[in-house]
Amino acid sequence: IHHNNFIQSIRAAKAMEAHVANGGKLADLPPPPPTENPDYIQCPHCQRKFNQTAAERHIPKCKDIKSRPAPIKRQIKR
């Protein structure tokens, strides 16, 4: 999985460099594809992701936060 993410990042960077070299603007390109780390744990309250140690600290505090903003709704492009 990590290797595939690395390859995907390299390909996106090469496409960006080729676009700029041909006179294009960075703003014309879509953002690079997001990477997911399967080792991260998602907080059930705010939907953010953390490593094991940080999740153990964060999740108990997050469940008690009253002024928490609404969870981020991620759009999945297909």
Textual characterization of the structure:
This protein is elongated. The chain has helices at 2-21, 52-62, and strands at 41-42, 49-50. The relative contact order is 0.11. Strands 1-2 form a two-stranded antiparallel ribbon. It is mainly alpha-helical and 78 residues long. The longest helix is centred in the first third of the chain and has 20 residues, at 2-21. It has 2 helices and 2 strands; from the N terminus they run αββα. The mean pLDDT is 83.
H/E topology pattern: HEEH
Rg on CA atoms, Å: 18 Å
How many DSSP E strands? 2
The CA-CA distance between the termini, in Å, is 20 Å
Instruction: Give average pLDDT, whole number.
Output: 83
Low-confidence sequence ranges? none
Total of DSSP H or I helical runs spanning 4+ residues = 2
The amount of helix comes to 25-40%
- Share of β-strand residues: 5-15%
Structural class category: mainly alpha
Judging from the principal axes of the Cα atoms, what is the shape? elongated
Tell me the quaternary state. single chain
Largest sheet: 2 strands, antiparallel
Strand order of the largest sheet: 1-2
Describe this protein with a few key phrases.
mainly alpha; single chain; elongated; 5% strand; 2 helices; 78 residues; two-stranded antiparallel ribbon
Provide a concise account of the structure shown.
By secondary structure, the chain is mainly alpha-helical. The chain is 40% helix and 5% strand.
Break the fold down into its secondary structure elements and pairings.
Blueprint lengths: L1 H20 L19 E2 L6 E2 L1 H11 L16
Antiparallel strand pairs: 1-2
